[in-house]
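Example for tutorial group B:
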């Protein structure tokens, strides 16, 4: 994530200096350009990303001045290929996000693993909240998109129904079709 001690350039990079935030709440709205949408679509192997936007409330805590809490939502519309038919499928996401970031805990060896503190997108007092949104988007993408009208196809009969057995308690052997093959 870092190159030479600074945040690297991501497809949807929105880097902010933490110390420049005022204490209390700051609101940010971001939207991906068409070039950024194309780059994000390429990164996640999507057919297209029609739009991507996010609205965030960033709260800087007074006690240390180095801790931020981010909450908000992102929305996206994109196309993926069906894993079975390769037909394009349209999806929309509208998801809430939240996280805490801490500069004061980055160099602290005793970080509690149960703290909801993220340090990976913070470097040299800067935070990339655009990449934060994109990583949350990546979690929401369906890894195996399928059209709703896909059925099981029995290779023997061409039927779209599961084969019946004489005894319903008997398991269907998936290799039984191999019996029909002729040996050379």
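The residue assignment follows.
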């Amino acid at each position: 994530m870092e190159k030479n001690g600074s945040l690297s350039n991501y497809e949807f990079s929105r880097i902010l200096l933490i110390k420049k935030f005022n204490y209390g709440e700051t609101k940010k709205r971001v939207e991906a350009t068409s070039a950024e949408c194309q780059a994000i679509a390429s990164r996640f192997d999507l057919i297209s990303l029609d739009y991507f936007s996010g609205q965030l409330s960033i709260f800087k805590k007074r006690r240390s001045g180095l801790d931020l809490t981010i909450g908000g939502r992102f929305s996206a519309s994109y196309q993926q290929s069906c894993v079975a038919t390769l037909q394009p499928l349209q999806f929309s996401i509208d998801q809430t996000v939240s996280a805490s970031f801490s500069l004061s805990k980055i160099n602290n060896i005793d970080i509690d693993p149960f703290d909801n503190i993220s340090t990976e997108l913070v470097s040299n007092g800067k935070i990339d909240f655009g990449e934060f949104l994109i990583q949350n988007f990546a979690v929401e993408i369906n890894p195996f998109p399928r059209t709703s009208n896909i059925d099981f196809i029995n290779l023997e009969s061409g039927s779209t129904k599961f084969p019946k057995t004489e005894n319903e308690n008997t398991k269907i052997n998936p290799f039984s079709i191999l019996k029909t093959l002729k040996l050379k």
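Strands lie at 2-3, 6-7, 15-17, 24-31, 48-60, 67-81, 88-102, 117-118, 122-123, 126-128. Compare this with the pattern of hydrophobic and polar residues in the output above.
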